[in-house]
Structure formats: C-alpha cells, structure tokens
Write a structure and sequence with these properties.
Blueprint (H helix, E strand, L loop, with lengths): L2 H16 L6 H19 L8 H20 L7 H36 L11 H22 L1
Length: 148
C-alpha cells in the first residue's frame, strides 16, 4: 500500500464523516426527547430529594437530543442549506469561544461589585458551553434559513 492510496482512503473517511446527516425524521425524535428531558429536569426542582445523578443524566440527554436535531437533514437538503449550515456552525463556534472567554470575567466583575467577599473566578462547565453552542447554532440556522 503506497502513501497516495492511504491518503485517498483517509480523505474518503473524512468526507464521509463531514457529509454524515441523520434522516429528517430524527429531527422530530430529537425535539420530542429534548422537550421530555427538559420538562423532567424542571420537574426535579419542584420535588424534594437528592436528584443530582438524575439531573446530570438529564443534562447529558438534553445535549444528545440537541445533537440529534443539529445532525438531522432538512426535508430539502441542497447547496443553500449546506452553506447556511456551515455559516451557522462557524457563528456558533466563534460565539462559544467568545462566550467561554468573556463570561467568567463578566461574572467576577459583577460579583466583585455586588458581593466582593464572594467574588471567585469560576470557569464555565462543559454542559454550559455545549448548550450555548448548540442553541446558538439552531437559532442562527433557523434565522438564516428563514431569510433565504
């Protein structure tokens, strides 16, 4: 096996991964699962008890269902949708990086003004960053799709 064939094989794998999309009906499954997980997550706030493990599982499920929605095809998947999808991913990535860098600084500034004794620098968690990124992607994607 020569170097050129290995490179071509890797290129095909990368293209297959880049072009991977779930069928359109997965979008409904994703939204239903997201809503159910969200409702149960909110419901845990109203019941007494230690639901910390359930809350963590539900938060991960929220991300999985949002990912299913994000990775699902549109009914009409054409070049315009691919371009819009690319723009939305770019915007969400840059927005998430900016959010991740600025939000802890803003939090500590506000905390030092309101309660200086409790001003501690806290980094954002993985759930918060991924949640923000996927929500921004979906909002931008829907807005761009509506405008096109």
């Amino acid at each position: 096996m020569n170097l050129k064939s290995v490179s071509e094989c890797e290129d095909r794998r990368i293209q297959k991964f880049i072009n991977f999309k779930l069928p359109n009906y997965y979008k409904k499954i994703g939204w239903i699962g997201f809503i159910l997980s969200f409702v149960i997550l909110i419901a845990t706030k109203f019941f007494e008890g230690d639901y910390s493990i359930l809350v963590e599982i539900l938060k991960r499920l929220l991300l999985v269902f949002l990912l299913i929605v994000v990775m699902s095809k549109e009914k009409l998947e054409d070049e315009m949708i691919k371009s819009i999808r690319s723009q939305a991913f770019s915007f969400a990535f840059v927005g998430a990086v900016a959010y991740t860098l600025l939000q802890p600084v803003i939090n500590i500034i506000v905390a030092s003004i309101v309660k200086p004794e409790k001003a501690i620098f806290n980094d954002l968690g993985d759930f918060q960053i991924l949640w923000f990124m996927m929500i921004i992607y979906l909002v931008v994607f829907m807005k761009l799709k509506k405008r096109a």
